Amino acid sequence: MAALRQRCAPALTSLRSSETAKAAGLAVAMIINNVVALGSTFVFARVINDYGSLAALISYLLILTVAGQAMQVATAREAVLGHLGVGREMAATLISWTKSMLVFTAAMTVVSIALRHQIADLVGVKHNSWAAAAGLPAGSIYLEVSLLRGALQGIGDYRGVGTSIVFEQVARLVLGTVLAVAGLGLTGAYLGSLLSYIAMSVYCAYLLRRQLLGPSEASPVSAVLNLWKHVRLAWAPIAGLIVIAVLQNIDLIAAKHRFSSHVASSYAASAVAAKVLIWVAMGAGFYLVPEVSRRRAAGEDPRGVLLLALGIIAVCAVPCLLIFLVGAHTLLAIAFSPKRATASSSLLPLGAAFTVLAATYLAVQYMLALKRTWFLLAIGAVAVLEPILLLHASHHPAGFAGVVLGVQALGALVALALALGSRPKRKPAPAVNPELA
């Protein structure tokens, strides 16, 4: 056995350091992150009486964190290209960004506290105004974490990125549960997210300082790229993901305005279970975006990539929707407790709704990969329409979910028509000399 280990050691060392292993490690971290996040949902559904309010607050926060997700990708790209500087220069850029983010976070905290009652009313949690006030600063701190994670990706520290992703969810679960059980209830569970973002920003900053500055070097003083210019350059992905986030999460906020606390909590459980296909779409997007970009650069028709990704969604949707059809009440009772299963009739239409939203997500990513932006007006109009219709929808969960399905179907039709309706321009073929033909 020892001899076998010795013979295999070089190959194992090479595998661990390969790009495949790094990408696989980050994918595993995302899987663990989603498993822990799902565990947090199950725990909080049992610890918090008014789970519907917590779900509405988390939906509000998820919309706010979209900018961070887009900026992480943009930062990684700019770091790889050297646009943030190298070594001390890159550290200077990140320090400058952190100072700007501290000022921005302080301003958002003041605004959020001043408008906490209005925000609470808008989200549908009027009796939890201080919890609602944590949303804007939490979203701002998440943006800082995302910038730092993007920088870590840019310098190739995938282990640090993956560790921070997993630790964020673990910290959110542990801190939120401790604070909730200690007497802070819903506010404590929600503050777990804010505290986990703070902890991960410190952790990522430590990793970057150690790798960019070394143990004995002084901090640099000159930045390479201004933060707000960096944000402006990434406006299209930010806008596209915000539209998707609104379509994905606004129903939980609207449900708080239409249902009682008990029904809203049960509806929230159904909505969480129904969104499984969104995670599949995100995974398919990791393949779609670079492959579409590659085919576009080569002058090939990239629409087949989108059709393949949509096929993956369709194959995964069939067993999920069958389970939702025959076992909705049992599934919700086991996962969230029997008292959260009273809105089980909404699970099937919600499952169908988020299946077609997964298609919308892929179409949006496809068009962003083609560097199109005009489609945002049409998809944005659908996102604006959804809360208007939901605030006048049925008071019965199944009828309410039917409206969600209708809006999501409209969004998918618009997105897919725009994505597949026009053939991307191919590069012109080289001219042929007629004398050589």
Write the layout of secondary structure elements.
Elements (H helix, E strand, L loop, with lengths): L1 H15 L2 H29 L3 H14 L1 H15 L7 H27 L1 H8 L5 H5 L1 H20 L3 H55 L14 H7 L1 H24 L2 H14 L1 H22 L5 H34 L10 H23 L5 H16 L6 H25 L16
Summarize the structure.
Helices cover 81% and strands 0% of the residues. With 437 residues, the chain is an all-alpha fold. 44% of the residues are buried.
Structural class: mainly alpha
Relative helix content: over 70%
Total strands: the figure is 0
Mean pLDDT: 81
Provide a count of the helices.
17
SSE order, one letter for each helix or strand: HHHHHHHHHHHHHHHHH
Biggest sheet, in brief? none
Give a structural overview:
The chain has helices spanning 2-16, 19-47, 51-64, 66-80, 88-114, 116-123, 129-133, 135-154, 158-212, 227-233, 235-258, 261-274, 276-297, 303-336, 347-369, 375-390, 397-421. The model is unreliable at 11-18 and 429-437 (pLDDT under 50). It is globular. It has 437 residues and is an all-alpha fold. Helix 5 packs antiparallel against helix 8 (135-154), helix 8 (135-154) crosses helix 9 and helix 12 packs across helix 15. Helices cover 81% and strands 0% of the residues. The protein is built from 17 helices and no strands. It folds into two domains: 29-233, no CATH class; 234-422, no CATH class.
